[in-house]
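Hi team,

As requested, here is the filled-out complex form for the magnesium ion run. I kept the field names the same as last time so the parser does not choke. Let me know if anything looks off before we queue the next batch.

— J.
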Amino acid sequence: MARKVRGLDVGTMNLAGAVQDDKGNIKIKLMRHCFLDVDVNPFTKKMLLQQKVQYVEFGKKVYVLGESAFELANIMNKVIRRPMKAGVMSPDEADAAPIFGLLVEAVIGKAEEPGIPCYYSVPANPVDADFNIVYHSGIILGALKNLGYVGKEMNEGHAVVFSELAEQDFTGIGISFGGGMVNVCVSYKTIPAVAFSTSRSGDWIDKNVAHVLGINQTRAAAIKEKGVNIKNPKNREHEAIVIYYRNLISYTLANIKAKFESAENIPHFPDPVEIVCSGGTALIGGFVEVVEDELKKIEFPIPVSKVRLAEEPLNATAKGCLLAALNDEEIVAEEVKEDTKGQSKKSSK
Ligand SMILES: Nc1ncnc2c1ncn2[C@@H]1O[C@H](COP(=O)(O)OP(=O)(O)OP(=O)(O)O)[C@@H](O)[C@H]1O
Ligand SMILES: [Mg+2]
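And here is what came back:
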């Protein structure tokens, strides 16, 4: 089997794996990043079979993974478990590491041979939270190693730049509006000039909308994900969503401005650049228009030519990770070629 590098987006809500098929097309597998543990007994097994649910047995438990866990949790009135919270592996789910490995295997499979590189996304340093990614990265590296990969970290915003700004010479602003975090990368010819994350994103909107409307968070998320246009709210619920979306977007832009103005060795952008928005939170109707509105309200330090959505907002990070891995493979191949040329010159002397 051919050796195939991988890209992996490890998100609070979704996991996405990217690989090239034999024709060179990029294939993405997306999965809800959650699971449900069920005690094994003949009754539950029968039910899982009846529901045609895919599950794995591990120790004394049965684990249902991804979307099926969601559906089954409703039927059984149980709460699903999520390995991550607010952008990183949750310490409350410390015993979920083996299950995380199974979820990763479901989206990228096992390596065809040991040592295949897999680039995985990590959040950039947060501006408004206190965490580091040491534990987070450790868990992911361990899971990848068990599947035969060598894991390599890639900043999520940078992955968006890799995926979406090739035609702009990798110069511009890539932003992933995810579930747990927003990740920003201002890039100049592939080099990140400013990269950071904030903790106001999809979950933050749900929590606040739920609070003001007196409903639970799951319900708030369901309303948000179904047919809302934040340029054209239809009722009180939509209006609450608009208020928090506008706040989230202006907060993100204000943070880019502040970071950009305070950072040292900032490149000068002679030409206007594009802002590319990815991530599930950017899928709401009217998102780009509201970013444009909010941009007009501040003196943004970088000239902007256009705001646009990523081609496939839920897949951009995984695709960017894969492209980075492929790029590295090419460089390594070139180096090996150079090296063998040198060797053969030496040996022919
Ligand atoms: N159609 C939609 N409209 C609005 N929001 C949506 C839509 N679909 C999904 N979302 C939201 O997108 C978020 C998940 O996006 P995404 O998969 O990019 O996050 P993630 O990568 O798992 O999280 P993170 O990068 O923050 O760790 C959730 O908050 C979800 O409610
Ligand atoms: Mg993400």
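Two things worth flagging: The mean pLDDT is 92. The first strand starts at residue 6 and ends at 10.

Thanks,
J.
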